[in-house]
Specification:
By secondary structure, this protein is α/β, with parallel strands linked by helices. It folds into 2 domains: 5-139 and 185-197, Vaccinia Virus protein VP39 (Rossmann fold, 3-Layer(aba) Sandwich), CATH 3.40.50; 142-179, no CATH class. The chain has helices at residues 5-9, 30-35, 84-94, 121-127, 142-156, 163-178, and strands at 18-22, 39-44, 55-56, 69-75, 95-106, 131-137, 190-197. The radius of gyration is 17 Å and the shape is globular.
Length: 203
């Protein structure tokens, strides 16, 4: 159950800088970010359609100079990186001082395609240890977990057409019930993090 783009946009203020979308696929965040004033660059490992991504490349070795971006996004992608600590180190490198790294990553979610990892709060805090974590929450809750399981069942009985309305209903119920809890939940489908680049001794 891929995340609603609104969960990412909700934590991004209006601005005028450059944004890198790691593994942005078909560029679903492009129009939303450009409307907020950003110059959007979508990097993915293969070509999709309609000019997306902007650039072909590998998150483990980003083809940009250090300090090139005001913000980097990782929406539903960190779990697909073979060496995520290297990818996160590359994000740190290409961010400007005080640049932000916005992450949406699954926790309780079925295996899909090329998954390598699931991340707990402690694991995320460790992998982002060179950043200052400004926000760490889980806007989705048990209704979405129920929805994920039900959608998997519906697909098996060839009723996948019901997936989209069920997904929307579960998201709405979770929004009503959680109101963005301040602390990360132990029982949730995904985590949302906003982290800021901090200068360290290595800089």
């Amino acid at each position: 159950m891929s995340s609603d783009a609104g969960f990412i946009v909700d934590v991004i203020p209006r601005g005028m800088g450059r944004v890198l979308d790691l593994g942005g696929n078909r560029g679903m965040l492009r129009s939303l970010l450009e409307q907020r004033g950003y110059h959007y660059i979508n990097l993915d490992i293969c070509h999709f359609e309609q000019g997306e991504p902007s650039l072909l490349g590998d998150a483990h070795c980003l083809p940009f100079k250090s300090g090139s971006f005001d913000m980097v996004l990782s929406k539903d992608t960190l779990e697909h990186f073979i060496n995520p600590w290297i990818a996160v180190s590359e994000v740190y490198r290409v961010l400007k001082n005080s640049g932000r790294f916005v992450v949406w990553v699954p926790f309780m979610h079925p295996f899909h395609e090329t998954d390598y990892y699931r991340y707990s709060p402690l694991g995320l805090q460790y992998i982002l240890r060179d950043f200052e974590i400004l926000r760490f929450d889980s806007p989705l809750w048990v209704f979405t977990i129920f929805g994920i399981a039900t959608i998997e069942l519906l697909k098996r009985v060839k009723l996948g057409v019901l997936a989209s309305p069920l997904r929307r209903t579960c998201t709405w119920l979770d929004r009503c019930c959680t109101r963005n809890r301040k602390a990360p939940a132990a029982f949730c489908p995904a985590y949302r993090i906003v982290a800021q680049k901090m200068l360290t001794a290595k800089d």
